[in-house]
Amino acid sequence: MTNRQSRIFAVAATAISALVFLILTVDSHRQFPELTHSQNITPEVTHGKDVWHKYNCINCHTLFGEGAYYAPDLTKITQHRGEAYLTAYMKNPSNFYDEQKHRRLMPTQDLSDKEIHDLIQFLDWVANVDNQGWPPRPILVTGGMVAGSAEGGADPPGAKPVDEGDDPMAKGERLFRTASPACNSCHSTSPGADMAGPTMAGVVGRAQEILDSGDYQGNAADAEGYIRESIVTPSAHLVPGAMYSAEGTSFMPSGYGDSLAEEEVDQLVAYLMTLK
Questions:
Q1: Residue pLDDT, tens place only, 95-142
Q2: Are the C-beta atoms of 243 and 98 separated by less than 8 Å?
């Protein structure tokens, strides 16, 4: 190749690369409003973003892969923790920690009720941005697992496929990983491994103990009914302890009665009934 041909090749390659970059940039900006659901940016969301920066949350936490890695990634946090939980957590994080066990603690920031509410609105807006799977491996809430992709619905890596021929318990086990929010983002199935919610190991025995305690306030007649009630109407009976409820509301998400079909609830209960 002569010098003239080399110059022509370099200029042409540069021009083509610049054109491709320009096209991709324009196309990205064309999609931003839909991907970021910008029509849902309210004054509360904007103020919540200001709260996020005011208290330097990014010094420990990560959004969309940006920030520090000392604490969990919060890109999808509102899809795994309800507003009641997040509100109580931000008011007094020490209620959710054992200092001797966890050592590194979330500082109490003394946020106002308005700041907490708007920060949660901001995080909820973030959680609903179509981030197209980025970051690919976010830091998760301690011990948690996010089922499938950022949009949810797929099985996590290594999950056993479940088809229509499998029994209800097998389908319930799959729902435990893939419901939205995924049950295993708050509950483990290992003995003694409490997370945001108690471990499901031994849940049948604990359910019966609650029913027999004389303090039970719900409407279930047996352990199976109690587990079903805990899924569909979690505030029917509040388990004592600051980690599980506040101001008469359970931290357990309350939307499963709407998001799961009755048959799916049956399958999930059937699986949990095996964890004795």
A1: 887 777 766 678 889 999 999 999 999 999 999 999 888 777 655 554
A2: no
Task: Please choose, from the candidates 216, 197, 213, the residue with its C-alpha nearest in 3D space to the C-alpha of residue 272.
Answer: 197
pTM of the model as a whole? 0.75
Q: pLDDT tens digits, residue range 22-67?
A: 999 999 889 888 888 989 999 999 999 999 999 999 999 999 989 9
CATH code of the domain occupying 168-272: 1.10.760.10
How far apart are the C-alpha atoms of 231 and 170, rounded to whole Å?
A: 18
Are the beta carbons of 215 and 226 closer than 8 angstroms?
Answer: no
Residues 6+ away with beta carbon under 8 Å from 97: 105, 106
Q: Cβ(109)–Cβ(55) under 8 Å?
A: yes
Burial class (CB in 10 A: 0-12, 13-18, 19+), 183: buried
Residue 106: helix, strand or coil by DSSP? coil
Distance, CA of 110 to CA of 107 (rounded, Å): 9
Q: For strands 62-63 and 249-250, give the pairing.
A: unpaired
Backbone angles phi, psi at 220, to 5 degrees: -80, 150
What are the angstrom distances between the C-alpha of 91 and each of 15, 100, 113, 214? Answer: 55, 21, 8, 31
Place of tokens 């049950």: 183
Report the alpha-carbon angle 178-182-188, nearest 5. Answer: 110
Class of the 39-142 domain?
mainly alpha
